[in-house]
Input
Amino acid sequence: MLKVSTVIRQAATASSRPTTVENCRHFSTTNYRFNSNHYELVIVGGGAGGASLSNYFGRRVKSVAVIEPHDTHYYQPLWTLVGAGISKLEQSAKPMAAVLNTKNWIKDKVGQFDPQNNSVVLESGKQIKYEYLIIAPGIKLNYNQIKGFPEAFDTPGIGSNYSPEYVHKTKAAIQRFKGGDAIFTFPNTPIKCAGAPQKIMYLADDYWEKHGLKSKTKSNFNTSLGEIFAVKKYADTLSSIISERGLNVNFKHNLIEVKPEKQEAIFEKLDSELNPKETVTKHYDFLHVVPPMSAPDCVRTNKLLVDQAGWLNVDKDTLQHKDFKNIFGIGDCTNAPTSKTAAAVACQIGIVGRNLTQVMQGKEPKSIYNGYTACPLVVGRGKCVFAEFDYNAQPLETFLFNQAKPRRSMYIMKKDIIPFMYFNLMLNGYWEGPGFFRKALRLGMGR
Output
């Protein structure tokens, strides 16, 4: 079997295809005989975006392949409730075969992209050719960038809701906690679901209050950010809740090391003018860790595909790659300047679906993504602030009532209704976000 490097060298000798929209016309190869090494459309990733688009295009394109190595698909937004002991991990899981258009499921990882030659090289060494490509491998969790991790997960009192491997440790640590210092972190990188690091703080505080531990507990949200939330309307509500509950927020604090034998967490103070920056050591009895994140290595290391920060370089309006017009991106791996959430992906499905279809027809992409994203901020058991906003951090709410007010109805939406819609509509390519309902409720006057 050929090595990845060998295949790339061979591919580099071939003539590269033009990447203008006009020249994409010849990619529409209805009469071409595709095979197991060459597909009209290749989708990399079987997460929310990749799985949904595999079904969307599976009904429209004859030759679609999905490259995805895992056997299980997770609805990850539910993990906040799993870590809080409210939902079960298995409620967030489905067999990958049940959510993908699996006619051409390639169970492997991408080793390298070769966009100049319209090919992908798998880790096994196999080369896959494409006419069009959707890049949707999600985001990489870099626990190892915090000194002491991931080994620290083997010690009591530490959990993380961002991995199916560690989310159960959050539940155990919350329930074993008997009072003391509780720390919740937010790293100094873009992350998926930026509200989740503080959601678990509210749920843990709610649990500890119900079990008589509130007076014995000092909860700290140590965040690398300089604000509690990017949208002022919702930030005001969250700040009031934090004040009312007696929670503490330390801005510009980035976790860089943990010493579990001493139960100490070391934070870099990002606003320090010293070089290296000043650090502060905090004792913990409970620690919820959110890891630094990045685009997956196969994306991040490909200089032809990424921006200077290592994210897939797409046009924020059309989600088409800025240099390779037969490539689109969706979800957490892109540099679209919006919060990385499943709600954002839902809206992006329709944008990518329509725009790629137009490119396949030799047309310019016309659909424009407004940056819609949503973050159901669970602020306690049975209470949720349903934040919805756009690229400009302006509220873009679906309902006619004030969604900044904590409501039980929005908690039910988060816990029960959205997961149902995700598995039964979105993953089948039938849900493109609430834009239609938002406009309908406003008699066509809304954005």
Remarks:
- The first strand starts at residue 38 and ends at 44.
- DSSP finds eleven helices and 21 strands in the chain.
- Residues 342-360 form the longest helix (19 residues).
